[in-house]
Amino acid sequence: MKSLRTVACLATLLPSVALAQQQIPTGSLPPDIAAAIKAAPLTQTLIPISGEEKFSQQIIKADEISFAAGAKLTLTGLNHPYIVVAAQRIKFANPDAYSIIQRDPQTAAALGSDGPVGPNGADNPGETNRTGNPGYPGGPGGPAVAGQTRQLPDVYLVAGEITDPKGPIPAGLLNLVLLFRGIDGGDGGTGGRGGNGGRAGNGKEGATSLFDCKEGGGPGGTGGAAGAGGRGGDAGAGGQGADLIFVTTKPAYEVLSYSRTNNVGGRAGLPGRGGNPGNPGPGGQGAPANGWCKATGGGSPGSFPSPANLGLGNTAADGAKGTVTAVILQSVGPLFGK
Questions:
Q1: If you write DSSP's letter for every residue of 176-214 in order, what string do you get?
Q2: Beta carbons within 10 angstroms of residue 61's beta carbon
Q3: How far, in Å, CA of 297 to CA of 218, rounded?
Q4: Coil, helix or strand for 108?
């Protein structure tokens, strides 16, 4: 049976079989980042990754980081401006099994909060020219808050050597997955509920005499119109995928350049919907029968608004894809004080 390294060598001759090597532009390591890495103490001399291990530190630094088969290293400190995972040697127990370095997949952008309820219309007791006064309209609901956008920090992966139990791993053999997709934008909040219409006044009672109705009663007034629902919150834009920077030696770069990388942008959130309208105000009561004067009809309830609300929030754009660059060093030793 051919060895894994023999298969890997054959795969490099067969582009249809081999993993695609990324075309990674080169850059330079900013002096402040280099100084921060050098000054940072070792998190541990050896960091074993088995199952899923989570790290909240800005700089995770070790002489060696070792991955068990199928292990995940998850970065949770996403409020830092940048994160560094640094090791003089990164070791993989089984390079055929997928190993993952990822940002915390549970991280989300904040949702927009709902808008406030609109003010209720005032009651309007009494009558004018014998007809009950109309109720005052309810006010519109308040606008909702927009969903938020959350950006990922830059991620520096420092590796001097990449090995398995047999020694240096050949390019194209390691199944390393880097999952740094942008964070989805937050959904906009729902617009505030409209205020209720005010109660209308009652019609004036008719004036009767011994022989007839001297002045008929008045109808009840019309209730106040319901307030429209508030405008929905704007959708939050999707966050950009993380910018990944490999800080490596040339041999380690050749291995990392075949890693599977997902740093596409996050999806935009959903725009918030408009709020519900309030309730129409009740109509006033008609005048009751009084002697020769007949009872009159009650007033109509207020109307519902048309349209029912002030509309959806605005849509937003998906996030942009992050970049991948490489910093090729003769040795990462100086970053470890070597």
A1: EEEE-PPPPPPPPPPPPPPPPPPPBPPPPPPEE-SSSEE
A2: 22
A3: 8
A4: coil
